[in-house]
Amino acid sequence: MSRLLTTWVPQKGETTWAKSGRFTGTTDIELTEAGAKQVSLAATRLVGAGKLLDPLRLAHVFVSPRVRAVRTFELLLPPSPGVVAGKVTYTEDIAEWNYGDYEGLKDQETRLLRKQRGLDLERRWDIWSDGCEGGESRQQVTERLDRLILQIREIQKPYMRGEKPADVLLVGSLPTPQTPFSRSLSLCSVPPASPTAAKGRELQVAHGLILRCFVKRWLTLSVDDPLRMMLAPGAIAVLSYKNNDVNEPAFHVGVALPPEEEHGF
Q: Which pLDDT score is estimated for 255?
């Protein structure tokens, strides 16, 4: 039977800056104890043979080089024969948005700074369209995510009918509380595995804001498209293709549990 190719998106655990609402891009911040527990709990419940994420089914792993993302990956998938060095790629393409001059600031602090610089006199700052001074623009973020998505689709395209496992898994961070949500696919819930999910997956370990952008670009929407989304640490969402067609990217509103035999009941 043809297996559905899916993209799994768990959120990275909590950090002190994320908890306090500070923009965290290039700064390496460790997970808090609570953040580590969030990821470990998700791993216990969702990772393992016959579970939502079976390490033996992974086809490739993409990891942001930030220490919080790397730690999330280590907690989510401890050393396993199914995840070999040749399957892991550390790449800036899935690193968090570079906030530039706004790194470490809270939302209101950023808005005040911009007004002091003579900006946003006629409308409020919108990171999705305006980008960050000294950091990345919308176009720069779009270009690197499109580059990553192209890699993923090149891997998946030959196997859309289940000829070979080729799923994608993203692991990201909780966005700062003050950051305006901009996507409708909810990453707060933890959807169960699809009974048609492919055996192999690609894992990506990344961050909150960039994951919102990733979902928009996956759906071929502009980064500043007003698509609303909620993210939660340790949560998982599913992206895929409609009709097993690589040219019809989509997301799952809900995913069915796998057959009982896959749980070992």
A: 59
